Every structure is written in structure tokens, then in C-alpha cells.
Amino acid sequence: xxxxxxxxxxxxxxxxxxxxxxxxxxxxxxxxxxxxxxxxxxxxxxxxxxxxxxxxxxxxxxxxxxxxxxxxxxxxxxxxxxxxxxxxxxxxxxxxxxxxxx
Length: 102
Hints:
By secondary structure, the chain is of the alpha+beta class. The protein has one domain (about 5-100): P-loop containing nucleotide triphosphate hydrolases (Rossmann fold). About 20% of the residues lie in helices and about 30% in strands. It has helices at about 45-55, 75-80, 95-100, and strands at about 5-15, 20-30, 60-65, 70. It has a four-stranded antiparallel β-sheet. The longest helix is centred in the middle third of the chain and has 8 residues, at about 45-55. The chain is globular, with a radius of gyration of 14 Å.
């Protein structure tokens, strides 16, 4: 796959917490109109990967990009192009889903 086609891309992505790798050597990409799904048991690195793409965490190794924007170097621009709703976020009953994302 040409990197220009990737909407999201991870190359050798890793995150270390102390001496333990929470995510190690994850490589994947998805193009427009493709569905990317993170599946795995608890502790597999799904949340860590999501937080790296959301620019909440910096990777310890490798890189992640959204629409060609590096999630570390271009984090401000990347944030303008994504929506991230953590599991623990409480949705307002007074807002529509669109208002919540906006």
C-alpha cells in the first residue's frame, strides 16, 4: 500500500510503561472506505493504540499517522481531524450525538 493512500497508519508502534511494553511493534494501516478494528483480550494494547492515535499518549517507538499527519510532530493538526471518546466519558443527555462529537 502506498503511504499516500493510508487514512491511518502505524509502523513498529510501541509504548513502554516502566520496564513493561504495553504495546510492541504494532504495524497496520487502513485506507479510505476500509474498516480498521482493534480486537484482543484485556491488556493487548487496544486502548494504548487508541490513545496514541488520539494524541493523548506519545509512543515510545515507531510512529502513527492520521491522514499523513504524524501524531507527535503534527499533533495539533491531527487532533482537528479526529474524534476520540474514551469509554469512561459520560455523555450529556441534553446533547445529540453530533453535538457530543463536535
